[in-house]
User: Fold this.
Amino acid sequence: GAGVSQSPSNKVTEKGKDVELRCDPISGHTALYWYRQSLGQGLEFLIYFQGNSAPDKSGLPSDRFSAERTGGSVSTLTIQRTQQEDSAVYLCASRRELGTTGVYGYTFGSGTRLTVV
Amino acid sequence: QKEVEQNSGPLSVPEGAIASLNCTYSDRGSQSFFWYRQYSGKSPELIMSIYSNGDKEDGRFTAQLNKASQYVSLLIRDSQPSDSATYLCAVNLRGGSNYKLTFGKGTLLTVNP
Assistant:
C-alpha cells in the first residue's frame, strides 16, 4: 500500500484481556518499529525488526508485551493481561534506505488508540 | 544524561516570526537526525532530515547540525498558525550492533495570529 497501515484504529478492552495490534508496513521497507505514546508524552520505543535479524526488544516494558513479524512484512504486537497503564497510542513506523549513504527515512502509521477499562 | 533532549517549551511566537527549536543528543557516533511534526491526535510526520554538519534548507524550514556539539536545531521562518504543533527531534542512536531511532519528548509550538 501507499502508507503504513495499522489496525484497529481504536480498541477498548477490559482489564485482564489480551489484545493484538497489527501493522502492515510499506512494501519493500526493510525495518519496522513499534512505539508507544501516552497522553501528552513523547514516543517510547518498544521493539524494532530489521530484516531477518533478531529483533531489538529492549523497549518492551514487561513480559506481557510481545511482537512478531511474519515473512518480513506484517507485524503483530500482543499485550497479554492488559492493565490500565497500557492505555496509549501504539504507533508503528517502517523504514527504507535512501540511496547509498545508508541513511534512512521513517514513515509512521496512524496508530492504534488502546483504552483499557 | 537523557539520550535525546529538547527544550520542553511550550514555545509561543507571533505569526511571521522565526521559531527556533533545539535538540541535544548523547551519542557522538550518531549519523542521522530527523525533525517530525505532530499535530494533536495525529501521528508524527517527517519534515526534515539532516546527516552532515551545517545547514539544510527546505522552504521555510532550516535544520542545523553540529556534531561536535551534539546539537541539532530547527528554524521555522515566517511562522504560520498552521505550524502550531509538537515538534519531535529524533536521532539514530547506537544500541549494540543496531541503530535505534530515539525521540525527544517534543516541543509544543504555538504560533499566534
In short: The CA atoms of residues 25 and 70 of chain B lie 6 Å apart. Chain B has no helices and eleven strands. Chain B touches chain A through 23 residues (CB under 8 Å). The two ends of chain B are 37 Å apart (CA to CA).
